[in-house]
Amino acid sequence: MKAIAGHDISYSYASPGSIELSLTGVSIEVSSGELIAILGHNGSGKSTLVKHFNALLPLQKGELAVAGMDAKDPSLLWELRRKCGMVFQNPDNQFVSSIVDEDIAFGLENYDTPAERIPRKVEEALESVGMPGAGKRSTHMLSGGQKQRIALAGVLAVDADIIIFDEATSMLDPPGKREVMEAVRRLHIREHKTVIMISHDMEDAVFADRVCVMADGKILAAGTPREILTDRSLLASAGLTPPLSVQIYYDLCEAGVELCRCPLTEEELVEELCRLY
Amino acid sequence: MPIVLENVSFTYGTGTPFETVALREIDLRIADGEFVGVMGHTGCGKSTLIQLMAGLLTPAHGKVMIDGADINGKGYPLANLRQRLSIIFQYPECQIFETTMEKDVAFGLKHSGLSAPEIQAKVCRALESVGFSFEEIRSLSPLELSGGEKRRVAIAGALVTEPQILILDEPVAGIDPVGRGDFLKLVSGLNRNGVTVLMVSHNTDVLGDYAERILVLDQGRLIMDGPTRSVFSDVEKLEKLRLGVCRPRKIAHLLKERGVQFPQDIVSYEDLLKAVIKSRKSVAVS
């Protein structure tokens, strides 16, 4: 079963004379357990698309099944949202409680989880994000990376299988970003969660199974990180820039310095540069 | 309008159980036209520092002087300062409050005494400088813009008064790579024309490419202050602080660790590129 099967999805924010912010006939499939990165310029439709996946936006046109559930069926709405959770950009905007365990329990309570099972579920979720025992901490005393991991724990506590990160690391400092990315990779590898990650950081996309590029409400291309991130003209046409390692590979080529292969990560770049000497 | 901080300290919640010293004994002088980067962890005092510079907070001790005058002195015209000093906060989209983009950007000029056509011309220029078509965007509501687009509008609102000092708190987070490049070019263009820029950022690559001087704050203290090249030369210290250095510098450092003779005075992407090409040529010759 596909985690996401979307066909010909279109969406308009419907106000006369507006800048086009809609999706135009987007089809996308995400396999169960896949880590997919969605890249695109501001206003390209990334957030609009993923907001369909947990029914924050109603389907106006097209077909969408999330974990096998029809997104148009109102009776499945709650179950769909339980299976597919979202972590947003601003860590402070997604807390409902000032105590960590109460915040994580909020979703469980809404899904009518028996009270005696809640503490165990909360602790398991905290362990999954690498913050065991943090339940009694105050949410506003946490660092940005910790806040995002608590938001993630809230999604995990209700047994979500599909997790969407909408630029969830863009406001974090480097250690915070590292913490969250490690938690994401751990969930993906160990717990086989499906991860859909919107990011402006090309370096994040390097670790995805598949990269999807959006522009002007459409999917422009999809492929492996290597196929997409080394394609300069594709990235340029989508309003994106390649990762540093790829950029320098091409700039060196133009200056007559050829590396054996195009590096994707910093480590590969150092490797390739070492070969020059 | 040089910015001078003399022995500035600031404490939140004085006299309460939550008393926290945010800044300790900061001495600092920023000359006209400098491009200064500010680094440090969440909670290190960066935001407190910029709010003190804008007169949004009053120091517990010490003085904040702009253009030679104590901005917290009696009778100091703070309103004038705010025409000449703009801050773009961390979530610029939260700074938008008007119903249309034109009105929002024009707000800063409302009491400037300019005529309506003059204001419109300035608003148009500010919106175009952040990459919008004025005619397309002017009557839109903020609800019709994406997150990144709202950020760019908010930035236009801060630029419209043509400030001499521009303070940016993590300005490029959440803006796409091309938008980011355009925005940074815009800021460095303003800086070349004499605008003092103070940019708080976790993005060491951006600071490496653009800032000529870096301040590093740690637990309320100014622990490093110097030209970008010399601050970033201490890779170990910055790694230990978990701040890191810009990637070009890091790559040069990694090459050195691998035993490659490689210049270490690298901070920007251009530096790295030139260094590889140059050292490659010398290898070819020998």
What attributes does this structure have?
heterodimer; A: 277 residues; alpha/beta; Rossmann fold; six-stranded mixed beta sheet; four-stranded antiparallel beta sheet; 10 strands; 38% helix; B: 286 residues; 2 domains; 12 helices; 21% strand; globular
Question: Could you write a compact summary of the structure shown?
Answer:
The complex is a heterodimer of chains A (277) and B (286). With 277 residues, chain A is α/β, with parallel strands linked by helices.
Molecular structure report:
The complex is a heterodimer of chains A (277) and B (286). Chain A is α/β, with parallel strands linked by helices and 277 residues long. Chain A has one domain: Rossmann fold, CATH 3.40.50. Chain A contains eleven helices and ten strands. In chain A, the strands form two sheets. Chain A has a six-stranded mixed β-sheet, sandwiched between helices. In chain A, a hairpin with a 2-residue loop joins strand 9 and strand 10. In chain A, helix 4 crosses helix 5. The radius of gyration of chain A is 20 Å and the shape is globular. Chain B has two domains: 243 residues, P-loop containing nucleotide triphosphate hydrolases (Rossmann fold, 3-Layer(aba) Sandwich), CATH 3.40.50.300; 40 residues, no CATH class. Chain B is built from twelve helices and ten strands. Chain B has 286 residues and is of the alpha/beta class. The mean pLDDT of chain B is 91. In chain B, the strands form two sheets. Chain B has a six-stranded mixed β-sheet, with helices on both faces. Chains A and B meet through helix 6, helix 10 and helix 11 of A and helix 6, helix 7, helix 11 and helix 12 of B.
Secondary structure: elements and pairs:
The complex is a heterodimer of chains A (277) and B (286).
Chain A: E1 2-11, E2 23-31, E3 35-40, H1 46-53, E4 61-66, E5 69-70, H2 77-83, E6 84-87, H3 100-110, H4 118-128, H5 144-157, E7 162-166, H6 174-190, E8 194-198, H7 202-205, E9 210-215, E10 218-223, H8 225-229, H9 232-237, H10 244-254, H11 266-276
Parallel strand pairs in A: 3-8, 3-9, 6-7, 7-8
Antiparallel strand pairs in A: 1-2, 1-4, 4-5, 9-10
Helix pairs in contact in A: 3-4, 3-5, 4-5, 5-6
Chain B: E1 3-12, E2 20-30, E3 35-39, H1 46-53, E4 61-66, E5 69-70, H2 78-84, E6 85-88, H3 101-106, H4 116-129, H5 134-137, H6 147-159, E7 165-169, H7 177-192, E8 196-200, H8 204-210, E9 213-218, E10 221-227, H9 228-233, H10 235-240, H11 247-257, H12 269-285
Parallel strand pairs in B: 3-8, 3-9, 6-7, 7-8
Antiparallel strand pairs in B: 1-2, 1-4, 4-5, 9-10
Helix pairs in contact in B: 4-6
